[in-house]
Specification:
With about 425 residues, the chain is an alpha+beta fold. It contains 7 helices and 19 strands.
């Protein structure tokens, strides 16, 4: 008879079949999306900024001013001839597990308490994974102007906690597994940028300046999860489920963006500034635009049924679609800094102007300092917390020699140890500045 299985045996076999099938169908789909796409995020290609926790709005000069506040290009003392040869920042992080957790559980035989400990570390909204890369090549600053070429790619994936529990524990009788809340959304692009800053008020050492960065954006690829829903429930007589995923993709597009800034130099020591990033920033995707759909359904299937491929109804399709637009997140930075002397420090308030991927209306605070005991070897540290990012300390240093500079930085966790870090976040910059 089809149902002559004990409940224990049934659950065990359901665990093997349903969990493996559902995990492959959902998790793989999400992670494949993340492999080639991404979102604007708080990743720093300037290693000096990264080492100071991202608190850089009031300190950025030369080529860095174009990235963090173009209005600084209009201030005396901030205008530098600079050629940034290369600069790259990399961030791979999650919202749940530290490096210490990874070392503890990877390869281990997990007990029931270990599995529960892992699940307890995941917040209610699920496991969020970010992977971001931002790079600049041959940025040039001269006087009140700067030009640069930047590339950006990232991934933003969230896995529902039900899926994680299914992976760890399998499904049990009268259990319902949903994928609601899981998502993957992103893009990758390159941009050519022109920045300009000019003083509009000056009185002694006090100056007020405004600036802008205009960018032409060339979209490289986009994959967006437009719709994802799915449910599988276990019953005494079997289990049933259904689901669908709709993904849209493109492999080319173009758009524009604008950063606006203002800076106030109180005197030769203190400076404040504000920058609004990605005003009207968008990409129109018009090349290779397609929609991909994946649909499955099965009703009151038993273990024997699931072994019959004909019992599960599934369908998939790919169709060409019209051009579509993605917007870049609009973020405001407000900063105050001590910008002269051996000890420099800065405080930044970062605020997303909407809850979108890559931005959060929850305020993000960054503080940082740089101390120069030896003119050729500055030492930097910072701390950042809030928003939708992990709280973290940052550290870095640099080499300054006859106009040449090489800076490096790394983020750690909340204890200052790399083992408390929930991922890897580092940056390297090199170039010439006079």
């Amino acid at each position: 008879m089809r149902y002559n299985l004990s409940l224990t045996t049934t659950c065990a076999r359901l665990t093997d079949s349903l969990s493996g099938w559902l995990v492959v169908a959902v998790v793989t789909a999400l992670l494949l999306l993340s492999a080639t796409s991404g979102l604007e995020a708080q990743v720093h290609s300037s290693a000096r900024s990264a080492a100071m926790g991202g608190a850089y709005t009031g300190l950025a000069k030369g080529a860095d001013a174009a990235k963090y506040n173009p209005a600084n290009l209009g201030l005396r003392g901030y205008q530098r001839f600079a050629l940034e040869i290369a600069s790259v920042g990399v961030n791979v992080s999650n919202n749940s597990f530290t490096l210490d957790d990874y070392n503890k559980y990877t390869g281990a035989i997990l007990s029931t308490s270990d599995k529960q400990d892992i699940l307890n570390k995941v917040p209610g909204e699920g496991l969020k994974i970010d992977a971001d890369v931002k790079a600049s090549a041959m940025s040039l600053a001269f006087g009140s102007m700067a030009v640069s070429v930047t590339g950006f790619a990232a991934a933003d994936v969230n896995l529902n906690k039900d899926i994680l529990e299914l992976i760890l524990n399998g499904n049990t009788f009268a259990d319902t597994v949903q994928v609601t809340g899981s998502y993957s959304d992103g893009l990758s692009y390159g941009s050519a940028e022109l920045s300009y800053g000019t003083a509009i008020y000056s009185a002694g050492s006090r100056q007020l300046s405004v600036g802008l960065t205009a960018r032409y954006i060339r979209g490289v690829a986009v994959e967006q999860l437009v719709e994802l829903e799915g449910l599988a429930a276990t019953y005494e007589t079997g289990f049933q489920g259904s689901g669908r995923a709709i993904i849209r993709t493109a492999d080319g597009g173009n758009g524009y963006g604008l950063d606006l800034g203002a800076a106030l130099k109180f005197n030769d020591t203190y400076t404040a500034g504000v920058r609004v990033q990605n005003v009207l920033g968008h990409i129109n995707w018009n090349k290779g635009t397609q929609e991909h759909g994946y649909i499955f359904e099965f009703e009151t299937a038993t273990v024997d049924d699931i072994e019959d491929d004909d019992y599960i109804g599934s369908d998939d399709y790919t169709v060409d679609i019209a051009s579509f637009r993605t917007t870049l997140p609009t973020v405001m930075n407000v900063g105050f800094a001590k910008a002269s002397g051996r000890l420099l420090w800065a405080v930044d308030w970062i605020q997303g102007l909407g809850d979108t991927p890559g931005a959060s209306t929850k305020p993000h605070l960054a503080v940082g300092a740089e101390y120069t005991l030896l003119s050729v070897l500055p030492v930097r540290a910072g701390y950042a917390t809030g928003g939708d990012k992990n709280a973290a300390f940052s550290f870095g240093s640099g080499l300054r020699l006859m106009g040449f500079y090489l800076d490096a930085a790394i983020f750690t966790g909340t204890t200052g140890s790399v083992y408390s870090s929930k991922g890897a976040n580092f940056a390297i910059s090199t170039g010439l500045q006079f």
